[in-house]
Each structure stands twice: as structure tokens, then as C-alpha cells.
Write a structure and sequence with these properties.
Chain lengths: ~675, ~170
């Protein structure tokens, strides 16, 4: 017999308690959609917005999100009192809100707007004490408009808890409280990796992707320009959501048709260069594996992850694949091959990438991806922005007759489509490796075992006689965990795929936003796998146009020309401009005639004991009366973190420094200046 | 010879002091508030580069440190003047007309609610909730000295006296 099931009575109906973490989940299971701003099931409970209040018999009014279910509770969700409290909360928020809704990027998808309408807010009874604050447009990926913030903190918690970055946090208090980067600096000067998940969870337009729609229209309308677009795999399985189409519908043909109607001259598929990436990265991987060098190999398609690695794991930068991302390979190939084919200048070919991602906007602006002063990819539009352009054109996506991509760079195999899902790059590389190592392509190309929704999947597999261990990660907090385990030796793998966003690119911050995002992600992921199945070819090495491009332009995979056009290099990056400014101040005080000794006090060197060197040097300088000859300074990073502690004596950098080594070097330098001591 | 006073510090000395403070607190992120208190005692305010260093040393984001530093009115991110004028605006002082005193001080020193420290770094004027000397209301404290039963004119006299003394020095 079953045990008696525990129940809660919600508005007079019994609801069975299963695994719900709190009353809110139970109430929502009962089909009552209590409004919330600050509740996301994957984030910690904050309990600040006070919208999910319920009346619990014998206990009074409680926040449903922060009350655990308990057998026998009798709950009411819709009393006159509760309705009034909720309405007051919204009115108070609105009293201090920039209510220029019609010109807001989130008009129509704003939760504040939606909840105010649902609760019947028809008048705001409170006087506004709102003073406009400046909008931060410094970031290439995101716009931060504090005038639209409701202080729910979803962005803060996502950045901290899921991505382990903490680029933004609450500052000040009372009615001055605001979400800001450290020291009120611009977003662009912080450790923000541009993943944009803060904007994806923002209920209003306080954080939103930066738009380049107008610039793209300008290029389209300029008869001098040939506008070439590329569309990432994750876009086609999500954009339909913006036109009320069912979730997980692949609308490839309609999207291409819409873009042609809008005036894009050529529309290519980013999956083509994803195939190219697989060939290059597959070779890089197999070569490293066979030679046993610099493993694990980290994928580098995700620009948010790349910036993260550059900031926090400089000692592992050489493990990043040197392959450019598919977006940048497409940019490089189009600008390299197309101008001569169509008799145009490079500067008159405009490359527009349609991406599910905000970090791609940052990637396109990286100095590594500019050739002769012009970018390889001129503009990056998110899925949302493309949907706005289609709406602006008066087109209905669902009514358009499908059109095919332009050849040859519109041709792809299923492997190139997989890039949209977490685990997709790995699966595509493994399919390539089978063909490369055994000489015949896999009969059943699907690696079911590496698919899934878990944010960390470690799988052992055998490919062509090679035993391989791969780790697939999404979310940068998980990536940090993996990096730490690799560094402390508790995890040994050959390949690590990292995507910053939940579920990979299909969960990117440029995709349509909604509170039922988990369901949408699931459907999008399924659609990616279905698209792969429906294509005739499933392995990148079967893409004969890729092979033709090698033949015509690149030579062999990994050749000199391939390295020039398809690869790049990464470098250590300071996390914040505060580190830079500290460094500048240090340089400014250095005396002209004095010997400057700069000890790195950055994280890496600090952990390796640079502080003891500073203290030892101070004592040494005092004891030997060198204060007028030697200036000891603390400095931030010398970008040689793997070899810390680092100390610069004059212009010479001493790595793996010890106090003795530095003192020796100081005396040698002083002696050289003809001032023996 | 180079004299190194408390105010003129080489960056090495600056970071050296922070290191000691961090060590004394076991480099524990949950000791952030006592660490900030010690840092402020040392430097008289919380310099940005020192806070960045504290964040790095504790392994927490700079934005979190900034959030804590701006939450408590005890902490200041701006260097303060040599003379800190604290005007009590608690209930007793407020009803005994503390605000006209604040207005007079602001007018005399060219300050406002936005700028609380004079350009020459001599004076900082701020209001506090209660100094615990309600019997003397309204009260002004200049550094550690308490002045009771203030009027706008008496407060200006105190300022003028300090300015005159500073000119002689």
C-alpha cells in the first residue's frame, strides 16, 4: 500500500507535495501562475519582490518562494489583501521607473509591464522621486539602463552563482540602491565576459543586448555595399518563437527568405565554417593527442569562455584551441575570397553575423579579427534583433516560402549544425576523428552518450583505437570547477568543451527571452538533433565544399595559409581596469634616478608568496640604507602568471623569484650603474 | 633623505599594509567588514586600488567589495578633509534647528549635498544621525571636539578660527 501522500490545500483544492522546494513551485504546479521578479529555480532564493505572497492559515502572509512545503498547510493565493499588497508593490516600483515603455527594447516582452497589466494597475498613486541616471553603453554586447532596474537581483545572482564572475552587484542602500559594476565603472572595463545571461534573466529593459539593427539597415540601403550574412545554427530553431510559432520549429528556409526579401545580397550558413572548424580543430586535437602535448584541448568557439579563460586561467591559455570560432572563420573566408570574385573592394563587402549570442558582438571587435583596419565581421545581430528587422519589414516569417542558402558557403553537414547544442562541438570532432583515424566514416554517427542537459558531463569513449576522455561543460561556474580540478590533478581529460550559456548556444542571451525558457531550450536542442538527422551528410569531412576550399585557398588542414586565416592566439587579460590604473599609478611614481623594483602582487604571484618578497625587500632596503637608491613597488600582473612570482628589477623581469634572487639582482644592477654598495 | 609620512606612501608600502591587514584576518572573505574597517583606519578612506587588492586577496569580485563599502555610511571612498565637521541631525538636534547650521557651513565653505569636502582638502562637512549628546543640541563635532548649543554664527566662528590657525601654520 502507498504511504499516505502529503498534501497542501491551495485555494480549497488539495495538491500533492512531490519534490517541490517551496510553496511557489507547488502553487504553480496547481496551475496558478503567481507573479515574480526575483525567482529563478536555478538561482538561490532571494525573496525580495514580494509578489508571490500567500496567506497561510495560522501563520499569516508569507513569501511562497521562501516557505518550504509542509503537509497540511492551508493556503490562499488570491485574497483581497494579497491583491492589494501586490498592486502596491508594483505601483511603488513604477513610481521610480522610467516609464517610456513605447521606446523600450523590452516593450512587449517586459515582465513589469505584463504583471502591472495582470494586476490591474491603472493609476500610480505615489509621487515619483525618480532622477534619471546615465545609461551605460560602453560594452559592445550589452546596454545597462539603471532607470529601468527593479532591483530583483536576478542578474547579480546569475553572474555570481552560475557564471562565478560577479561583474555586477548591489551597491549603496535605501532609495539609492543600484546594480553596478565595481566602483561604479563602465561595464566594458570590468571582468564581464559578455555572455549576456544577465539580460536574459532581466525582467525589464535594465540590461539588454546592444543593438546594431540601424547600422545593418544602413549597409543594406547603401548601393556601394555588398551585404553578406551568416546565420548560426541555434538561430533557426528559436526565431520562430518571436512569431508565435511552436517551440523547436526549424525555420531555416523562411529565415533565409526573409533576409533575401529585406535586401541581404548573399546568405551563408555559419554551419559551413563550423564544418571547417571541425576539420581544423579535429586535426589539432588528434595531433596533440598522438604527440601527447598540451592536453586537455579546450574548445574556443565560445567567446565568453575565451575571455573567461584569458582572465582567470592564463596558465592554461596554451590549451585553448587556436582555431577561430565559426563566426570568425566565415568572416575571414568571405572577406578573403569574395571581393575578387565579385570585383569589389574588401571595404565594400559587409559581413553581418546572425547569432544567438551577445558575446559574439565582443568577439567581432577583438583586434585579432581585424584585417588591414577593417573587421572580418562588421556587425553581429542577435536572434532578437533579426526578428525585429523582419517585423520592421512587415514580413510574416510563418507565411514566407522557404528559400535555400547561397552556395558554396551555405552548404553544411549535420556536424556543423550540432554546434548549437552543448556537446555538439565534441560530437562533431569525434565524428571527424573516427573518419580520420579509421579511414571510414561512422555508420551510426550519433554519440548518444555525450548528449544531455547536465552542466558537466565526463565521458570515456574509444575512437579508432584511441581511448579518449572528454568533459562537456556549460555555465562558467562549472567551467571554473573543471579548471580547478585539472590544475590540482584530480581530473585528467583529453578534450574540454565549454559553452558559457545554459544548454550551449541554443540558450544564448541573444535568443528570444521568456520565463518558460527551460522548455524552450529543450525544444530547441531537440530541433538541432532533428536537423542533423534530416541532412544527408553527418561528418564535416564529407562536406565537399569545405574540401574544395582547402584545395582552392588553404592547402592542407593546419597549413600556413589555414593558420593565417583560420587560427588566432589568445593572451592574458587583466580582469578590470582598476588593475590597470593601479599599475599606471605605480609607474608614475617611479623616480628617474632610482632603481625601480616592481613586485607583482597579482593573484597568481600573490599566491606564490610575492608578499613575502615585498616585505623582505622593504626590510633589506631599510637595513642597508638603500632608500634613496632603490624604490620598491607593488605592481599588478606582468602577464607571466605561470612563472610567478615575478619581480622586475629595472627593466629585467625575474620569474620564479625568491628574495635572495631579487636582492642579488638589485646589487648587480646598482653595481652596473657604477654605484657599488 | 626621503621622509615617508603617513599620507605619502609608496605603492609598495600601501600594499604591504593591506597584506598585513589581510593576514591578520586570515584572508577570509567573511571578514570583509573588519578588513575594510582596518583599511579605512590605516588610509583614512578606502582607495580604489587598495579595494581591488583586497578583492583579489580574498578571491571575491570587486563589485561585492564595492557593494559592502557603499552600503555602510561608516565607509568612505573619497579622501576626507583634515577637519571632519560632523553636524548632528538626530531628532533632538533637528528640532533645535540643525539644518540652518548645515546651510551656513555649506555656504561658508562652498560645499553642497553633492560635494562634502573642500577643494583644498581642509574641511569635510557631513551630517550624522545622533552623537549621543542630545542635551547639548544642536551639536557639531570637529574631529574629536564636541561643540554644543550651536548656532549658524557660532559654527562659522569655529570654521574661521581654524582657517586663521591654518594660515599661520
Amino acid at each position: 500500500m502507498n504511504k499516505t501522500t502529503a498534501t497542501v490545500t491551495i485555494d480549497g483544492r488539495k495538491v500533492i507535495i512531490e519534490n517541490e522546494k517551496n510553496l511557489l513551485e507547488l502553487v504553480r504546479k496547481a496551475g496558478i501562475d503567481l507573479p515574480t521578479f526575483c525567482y529563478y529555480s536555478e538561482l538561490s532564493v532571494y525573496g525580495a519582490c514580494r509578489l508571490c505572497l500567500v496567506d497561510v492559515e495560522g501563520k499569516g502572509i508569507l513569501g511562497a518562494c521562501s516557505t518550504p512545503p509542509e503537509a497540511g498547510l492551508v493556503i490562499r493565493t488570491n485574497t483581497q489583501e494579497l491583491r492589494e499588497i501586490r498592486k502596491i508593490s508594483i505601483e511603488l516600483i513604477l513610481a521610480n521607473h522610467d516609464r517610456e515603455c513605447t521606446s523600450c527594447v523590452r516593450s512587449g516582452s517586459c515582465q513589469l509591464q505584463d504583471i502591472a497589466r495582470r494586476l490591474g494597475v491603472d493609476k500610480i498613486r505615489y509621487r515619483s522621486i525618480y532622477e534619471p541616471k546615465p545609461v551605460d553603453t560602453s560594452s559592445p554586447a550589452l546596454v545597462h539602463d539603471p532607470n529601468k532596474c527593479v532591483l530583483c537581483g536576478d542578474c547579480v545572482r546569475f553572474c555570481n552563482e552560475i557564471q562565478s564572475i560577479g561583474a555586477i552587484d548591489f551597491a549603496y542602500r535605501g532609495h539609492n540602491a543600484a546594480v553596478v559594476p565595481a566602483f561604479g565603472n563602465d561595464l566594458a572595463s570590468t571582468e564581464c565576459v559578455n555572455c549576456g545571461q544577465c539580460a536574459a534573466v532581466c525582467p525589464t529593459g535594465a540590461l539588454a543586448p546592444a543593438s546594431q539593427v540601424n547600422k545593418v539597415w544602413q549597409a543594406i540601403n547603401d548601393p556601394q555595399k555588398t551585404v553578406v550574412a551568416q546565420i548560426a545554427p541555434a538561430v533557426r530553431v528559436a526565431i520562430g518563437e518571436e512569431f508565435n510559432m511552436e517551440y523547436g520549429l526549424s525555420t531555416t528556409g523562411q529565415v533565409v527568405a526573409a533576409m533575401k526579401r529585406m535586401g541581404f545580397d548573399t546568405v551563408y550558413d555559419t554551419s559551413f565554417t563550423a564544418d571547417l572548424t571541425v576539420v581544423e580543430e579535429g586535426n589539432e586535437f588528434i595531433t596533440r593527442k598522438i604527440n601527447g602535448e598540451r592536453l586537455p584541448l579546450f574548445t574556443s568557439c565560445c567567446p565568453a569562455w575565451v575571455k573567461f579563460a584569458e582572465q582567470y586561467y592564463p596558465q592554461l591559455i596554451d590549451n585553448l584551441s587556436s582555431c577561430r570560432s565559426p563566426q570568425q572563420m566565415m568572416g575571414a573566408m568571405v572577406k578573403h575570397s569574395l571581393p575578387s570574385q565579385i570585383n569589389r573592394d574588401r571595404k565594400d563587402v559587409v559581413m553581418v553575423a546572425i547569432m544567438p549570442c551577445t558575446a559574439k558582438k565582443f568577439e567581432a571587435k577583438r583586434p585579432e579579427f581585424q584585417t588591414n583596419g577593417t573587421p572580418d565581421v562588421d556587425y553581429v545581430l542577435t536572434t532578437q534583433e533579426l526578428a525585429r528587422m523582419i517585423e520592421q519589414s512587415g514580413l510574416s516569417l510563418e507565411k514566407l516560402h522557404p528559400t535555400s542558402f547561397d552556395m558554396p558557403m551555405g552548404f553544411k553537414t549535420g556536424a556543423g549544425i550540432l554546434f548549437g547544442n552543448s556537446g555538439g562541438v565534441t560530437e562533431a570532432v569525434l565524428r571527424y576523428a573516427v573518419g580520420h583515424l579509421t579511414g571510414s566514416n561512422p555508420v551510426d554517427p550519433e554519440f548518444e552518450e555525450i548528449r544531455g542537459e547536465d552542466s558537466l558531463r565526463i565521458i570515456g569513449t574509444e575512437v579508432g583505437g584511441l581511448e579518449l576522455s572528454v568533459a562537456i561543460v556549460h555555465g562558467l561556474g562549472k567551467a571554473r570547477e573543471v579548471m580547478e580540478r585539472i590544475l590540482d590533478g584530480s581530473l585528467t581529460v583529453d578534450l574540454v568543451e565549454v559553452m558559457a550559456c545554459p544548454g550551449g548556444c541554443i540558450g544564448g542571451a541573444g535568443q528570444p527571452v521568456s520565463s518558460d525558457i527551460a522548455l524552450r531550450r529543450k525544444r530547441r536542442a531537440e530541433a538541432i538533433y532533428t536537423t542533423d538527422r534530416l541532412l544527408d551528410l553527418h561528418c564535416s569531412q564529407e562536406n565537399h565544399f569545405v574540401n574544395e576550399y582547402y584545395h582552392r585557398y588553404l592547402g592542407e588542414p593546419g597549413s600556413r595559409e589555414a593558420r593565417r586565416l583560420l587560427h588566432t592566439h589568445y593572451h592574458h587579460r587583466r580582469r578590470t581596469s582598476a588593475e590597470e590604473s593601479a599599475l599606471r599609478k605605480v609607474v608614475k611614481v617611479s623616480g628617474d634616478e632610482m632603481l625601480a623594483v616592481r613586485v607583482c602582487a597579482g593573484t597568481g604571484c600573490f599566491l606564490r608568496g610575492s608578499q613575502n618578497i615585498i616585505q623582505g625587500l622593504m626590510k633589506h632596503v631599510e637595513a642597508n640604507e638603500l632608500a634613496d637608491k632603490v624604490l620598491v613597488q607593488a605592481s599588478f600582473c606582468f602577464e607571466k602568471c605561470g612563472e610567478g612570482p615575478n619581480v622586475a628589477v629595472g627593466d629585467t623581469i625575474i620569474s620564479h623569484a625568491t628574495l635572495e634572487k631579487v636582492i642579488e639582482a638589485i646589487h648587480a644592477a646598482l653595481a652596473q650603474e657604477g654605484e657599488p654598495v | 633623505m626621503i621622509e615617508q609620512g603617513a599620507a605619502v606612501q609608496t605603492p609598495a608600502r600601501r600594499f604591504d599594509k593591506v597584506c598585513t591587514i589581510l593576514d591578520e584576518n586570515g584572508r577570509q572573505p567573511q571578514r570583509l567588514i573588519p578588513i575594510l574597517q582596518a583599511v579605512q583606519e590605516e588610509y583614512r578612506y578606502l582607495p580604489e586600488d587598495v579595494l581591488t587588492f583586497v578583492a583579489d586577496g580574498l578571491g571575491i569580485p570587486g563589485a561585492r567589495v564595492y557593494g559592502v563599502a557603499t552600503f555602510y555610511s561608516h565607509f568612505t571612498l573619497e579622501p576626507k578633509g583634515k577637519y571632519i565637521v560632523r553636524l548632528c541631525d538626530g531628532t533632538a538636534c533637528h528640532v533645535k534647528r540643525s539644518i540652518p547650521i548645515l546651510e551656513a557651513l555649506h555656504a561658508r565653505l562652498g560645499l553642497s549635498s553633492k560635494q562634502s569636502t573642500t577643494d583644498d582638502m581642509l574641511f569635510t562637512v557631513e551630517t550624522v544621525a545622533c552623537l549621543g549628546a542630545c542635551g547639548l543640541a544642536p551639536v557639531v563635532m570637529i574631529n574629536e571636539e564636541v561643540h554644543g548649543q550651536m548656532t549658524p554664527a557660532a559654527a562659522i566662528e569655529l570654521i574661521d578660527a581654524i582657517v586663521a590657525r591654518e594660515k599661520l601654520a
